[in-house]
Write a structure and sequence with these properties.
The structure holds two protein chains of two kinds. By secondary structure, chain A is mainly β. Chain A has strands at 4-7, 10-13, 19-25, 31-37, 44-50, 53-56, 64-67, 73-78, 87-94, 103-104, 108-112. Chain B has strands at residues 9-13, 18-23, 32-38, 45-50, 55-56, 61-64, 70-75, 84-91, 103-108. The chains are: A mainly beta, B mainly beta.
Chain lengths: 113, 109
């Protein structure tokens, strides 16, 4: 089945230790998104790609970076995780156009010790 | 800013219809209205979307007010598996989905 895959599902890192979360898709969608969701809150958009065109939300901390080496893969790099970065990180994909459905992965739960 | 307003929570009895409201009073003519839901411990999933006309699919119906300033997601027969947070959003052009606070729906057996 075509889908959005996130690895790992659970990630533990230490305060200040860089961590990378990965997302892959078999849907061949040109748009990919990263959201951060903290406990009991709605998902918050961090950034998104239209193909290789990167779009950063204005309030996304500089600590968060992203890479998209090809259509299928997208990475979220957190350079120096703080305790406040502990959250669920959700990857999503869609075709371009606001009327198109977004498909979400199951998320990666990040714990910062 | 999702630019939508929803009640924090709602409750429904199993097998009864549920009407989930959303206010989007500043909506523009090209904004689509989207509904997603998030089941416990899962990523959000698409429910339905529309522009002007009411929409039906296998999951739900979307009723859009004539002035488009509000919409209602209708679950025709709520089941326990419909217990989730329901998010209403609006997008246009290439604007990505931005989630508001959503409505937590509880379904009582």
């Amino acid at each position: 089945d075509a889908m959005v895959i996130q690895n790992p599902r659970y990630q533990v890192t230490q305060f200040g230790k860089p961590v990378t979360l990965s997302c892959s898709q078999t849907l061949n969608h040109n748009v990919m998104y990263w959201y951060q969701q903290k406990s009991s809150q709605a998902p918050k958009l961090l950034f998104h790609y239209y193909d290789k065109d990167f779009n950063n939300e204005a309030d996304t901390p500089d600590n968060f970076q992203s890479r998209r080496p090809n259509t299928s893969f997208c990475f979220l790099d957190i350079r120096s995780p703080g305790l406040g970065d502990a959250a669920m990180y959700l990857c999503a994909t869609s075709r371009q156009g606001s009327y198109n459905e977004q498909f979400f992965g199951p998320g990666t739960r990040l714990t910062v010790l | 800013d999702a630019k939508t307003t929803q009640p924090n929570s709602m409750e429904s009895n199993e097998e009864e219809p549920v009407h989930l409201p959303c206010n989007h009073s500043t909506i523009s003519g090209t904004d689509y209205i989207h509904w997603y839901r998030q089941l416990p411990s899962q990523g959000p999933e698409y429910v339905i979307h529309g522009l002007t006309s009411n929409v039906n699919n296998r999951m739900a119906s979307l009723a859009i007010a004539e002035d488009r300033k509000s919409s209602t997601l209708i679950l025709h027969r709520a089941t326990l598996r419909d217990a989730a947070v329901y998010y209403c959003s609006r997008t246009s052009g290439n604007t990505p989905l931005v989630f508001g606070k959503g409505t937590r729906l509880s379904v009582i057996a």
